[in-house]
Amino acid sequence: MxxxxxxxxxxxxxxDAMERNLARVADYAASSGLRLRPHxxxxxxxxxxxxxxxxxxxxxxxxxxxxAEFMAAVAPEDLLVAxxxxxxxxxxxxxxLAHQARITVALxxxxxxxxxxxxxxxxxxxxxxxxxxxxxxxxxxxxPREAANLSKAIQNLPGLxxxxxxxxxxxxxxxxxxxxxxFNAAVGALVRDVRAAGLDPEIVSGGSTPLLFRxxxxxxxxxxxxxxxxxxxxxxxxxxxxxxxxxxxxIVATVVSTRPGHMIIDGGSKTFSSDRLGSGxxxxxxxxxxxxxxxxxxxxxxxxxxxARSERxxxxxxxxxxxxxxxxxxxxxxxxxxxxxxxxxxxCWKPEARGKLQ
Length: 358
What we know:
Blueprint lengths: L9 E5 H18 L2 E2 L9 H9 L5 E3 L2 H7 L7 E3 L6 H10 L5 E5 L2 H14 L3 E6 L14 H9 L4 E7 L13 H17 L6 E4 L16 E2 L9 H6 L9 E11 L2 E4 L3 H4 L12 E3 L6 E5 L4 E4 L12 E6 L2 H6 L4 E5 L2 E6 L9
Parallel strand pairs: 1-16, 2-9, 3-4, 4-5, 5-6, 6-7, 7-8, 8-9
Antiparallel strand pairs: 1-10, 10-11, 10-15, 11-14, 12-15, 13-14, 16-17
Helix pairs in contact: 3-4, 4-5
């Protein structure tokens, strides 16, 4: 079956580009002396997770307990839940999982750590813990000055093993952001302060895809957790971390209606997500067949495309390839990924961890 024969809308993966992305980051991490613990939030696939492990990943990262249950099947050396696990049902399931895999949890409070400790003791297991530090995003994390005290408190809780600190510089969207040197120095100061308090972090975990290839500059960092790099998207291009040729994932859509200067494709917010570009530019994706066309509006099933600056015209039934703004959300919306090589469908797989929210 060829790419154009896919029923649409369909999520397609350029296998050559994906394989280059995986190898490039594995090589960078190895040459930089960094542990690579990729975040599976982008691909949500045990098949791709196995490829990452085969290329030398030291473990895997997930956001939710339900994702951990799927990724444990890959048998990673260490599985990081990079999200505070709060609530008895989640904790009980995670404790059960800890009998078959080494589990580390990122958290930022004793309110989250104490129930985790109780769950560990009750199940006869141990959890690793990374203290989450807010380095500027303002989402989760203790302030840097509080990291040592929380780390010491966690060391006193039974069933828990404090392993280090973690952070996510999601407020920095470009590798050329002038705040990068200040951020690098701040992490260095954080690590020095933790060590000065008598603590020896095994893991200093951070990073993001936009700053991925500057990770070796971050003082004290020894682990990176990129996720989007496996496929990349328009936001990754805008960050300077990849080029158009590195965008491995795209949506194949069909033109279902036309009028002068405009067309409708069979994919809307249920296909692409409604995420905007971090740069503030308009649009929900780039149409590869007509980069000048503007994918400017969506309903749930309809994609509105302005053709005023399009390089070509389209007819009902034509297929187009669209690179979305944010691929992670788009993958979560699709039941099947179609692996493409040279225009031919070579394979397909299910992103098993899609929709796993708990």
